[in-house]
Automatic annotation (TrEMBL):
Residues 1-20 form the signal peptide. This is BNR/Asp-box repeat protein. It comes from Xylanibacter ruminicola (Prevotella ruminicola). The keyword Thylakoid does not apply. Residues 41-155, 181-376 form the DUF6242 domain. Gene3D superfamilies: YVTN repeat-like/Quinoprotein amine dehydrogenase (2.130.10.10). Keywords: Signal. The lineage of its organism: Bacteria, Pseudomonadati, Bacteroidota, Bacteroidia, Bacteroidales.
C-alpha cells in the first residue's frame, strides 16, 4: 500500500512540474504588438432632422436616420480621416454611432478637450455616441503600451440647404441642347405631321393634320394611328407636354406620359400614359387615359405653357402658375412641395423646362431669355 501511495505522490509531483513548465512556455510565447493604426472607419448611425412645410404653410420637423451614408478615407501618412461626399446639411453630428476597427487589436480612444485644457480620454465603444463637433482627435494605442497614433477626424457637411431646390443663374451658352428633339421635329415636318409630341427609345409620336395621335417605329419612315383605350376626343391637342423614361419594372420598356388641356375637363389637365415595350417579341401597347377620379383632389390644374420633365425620380409639371407640381406615382396624383420651388428671383412665369444627363433641371424664360439651373441635394 505504501508503495502505491509513493508512486501516486511521484506522479502528482511530475504533473505539477509539467504544468508549471507549460505555463512558463505559454507566457513566453505571448506577443504584444507595438504597431497599430485605424484600419476602418464608418458612420453606423446618423440622425437627420428634416424641415418641411405642410399644405397649410405650417413648418414642421421630422427625424430620420442615415445608416453608413458615405465612404470615409483614412490617410495614414497625415493621420487624417475624412469623407469626400458631404453629408446633408440637416444631420446631427453631436450624437453619432461609428464603427471603428484597428490594426493588431489596438485600443481605440476618443479624446475630447477638457475644461482645464488637459486631454479627456474615453474608451471607444460602438454603442456609445460620439460628438464629432467637440472631438479633438481619435487615438489608437499599441498593445504593448509603447505609444499611440492620433487621427484628426473631419466630417464634411453640405453648406447649402439640403432636400430643397438650389438654383443658379446661368447664361444661354450653358444651356444643354436637345439635338435629337430638333432632328425629330424636322422628320415629323417632312412626313407631313402637324406637330411633334415626343419620342422614346423606339417609338416617336406626333399629331397629324386631323389631330390623330400617330406613331412611328421605324425612325420616321412610316406613321400609323396609335391605339387608344378611350375616345380620341379626350386627347390634349393644344398646350400639351410629353415625357418618357425607362420603366424600372420591366426591361426594354418606356413609361410615357402625355398631359395637357382638353375642353372636356374645365379644371384639370387630362393625363394619358403608355407603357411602351420594345423587346423582340413584345406586343404593341396602347395609350390609357387616367380617370379624373383617380387623381382625387391632387389633380394637375389647367395652365398655359405646360412643361413635363423627369427629374430626381419624379415627374415635374411646370406651367404659368408659379408652382412646380410633382408626381411620384407616374402621373396619377400631382402635388406641390416645399422641396420643389422655382427661383425666388425668377423674372417670368412663361418658361421652358428641360433636364440634362448630369441631373440638373433647366429653366429658360421665353420672354426674358434668363436661364436657371437647379439641383437638389438629398
Amino acid at each position: 500500500m505504501k508503495r502505491y501511495i509513493s508512486t501516486l505522490c511521484t506522479m502528482l509531483v511530475c504533473s505539477m512540474l509539467v504544468t508549471s513548465c507549460l505555463k512558463d512556455s505559454d507566457e513566453k510565447n505571448v506577443q504584444y504588438y507595438n504597431d497599430t493604426a485605424i484600419a476602418s472607419f464608418k458612420l453606423a448611425l446618423v440622425n437627420r432632422y428634416v424641415h418641411t412645410t405642410s399644405s397649410t404653410g405650417a413648418d414642421s420637423v421630422y427625424k430620420s436616420t442615415l445608416s453608413d451614408p458615405v465612404v470615409f478615407t483614412i490617410d495614414q501618412q497625415q493621420h487624417k480621416i475624412y469623407n469626400t461626399d458631404s453629408l446633408p446639411s440637416d444631420v446631427d453630428i453631436n450624437h453619432v454611432l461609428a464603427t471603428i476597427t484597428s490594426k493588431n487589436s489596438g485600443t481605440v480612444v476618443v479624446n475630447y478637450p477638457a475644461s482645464d485644457g488637459q486631454d479627456s480620454l474615453l474608451y471607444y465603444n460602438s454603442t456609445d455616441s460620439i460628438d464629432f463637433e467637440k472631438l479633438q482627435d481619435l487615438r489608437v494605442y499599441a498593445q504593448d503600451g509603447s505609444g499611440y497614433r492620433s487621427y484628426k477626424v473631419t466630417i464634411n457637411i453640405h453648406k447649402a440647404q439640403t432636400n430643397k431646390m438650389i438654383w443658379e443663374q446661368k447664361s444661354i451658352a450653358d444651356l444643354p441642347i436637345d439635338t435629337k428633339k430638333t432632328m425629330w421635329e424636322q422628320i415629323a415636318i417632312n412626313a407631313g405631321m402637324k406637330q411633334l409630341i415626343g419620342y422614346g427609345t423606339v417609338e416617336t409620336y406626333a399629331y397629324n393634320n386631323e389631330d390623330q395621335l400617330m406613331v412611328s417605329r421605324d425612325n420616321g419612315e412610316t406613321w400609323t394611328a396609335d391605339s387608344l383605350d378611350e375616345d380620341a376626343t379626350w386627347l390634349p391637342t393644344e398646350n400639351f407636354a410629353f415625357v418618357s423614361w425607362p420603366f424600372a419594372a420591366n426591361d426594354s420598356t418606356d413609361y410615357q406620359l402625355l398631359v395637357g388641356v382638353n375642353n372636356n375637363n374645365s379644371t384639370a389637365c387630362v393625363v394619358w400614359r403608355k407603357i411602351a415595350e420594345y423587346s423582340k417579341h413584345s406586343m404593341p401597347s396602347k395609350w390609357v387615359l387616367i380617370p379624373t377620379a383617380d387623381h382625387g383632389k391632387y389633380y394637375l390644374p389647367k395652365m398655359d405653357n405646360l412643361n413635363l420633365v423627369r427629374f430626381n425620380s419624379a415627374v415635374l409639371a411646370i406651367g404659368t402658375d408659379k408652382k412646380i407640381y410633382v408626381s411620384r406615382d407616374q402621373g396619377i396624383t400631382w402635388k406641390t412641395s416645399s422641396k420643389y420651388t422655382l427661383p425666388d428671383e425668377l423674372g417670368t412665369n412663361n418658361l421652358s423646362a428641360t433636364t440634362d444627363d448630369d441631373g440638373y433641371l433647366w429653366l429658360v424664360g421665353i420672354d426674358t431669355g434668363e436661364v436657371w439651373r437647379g439641383m437638389i441635394i438629398e
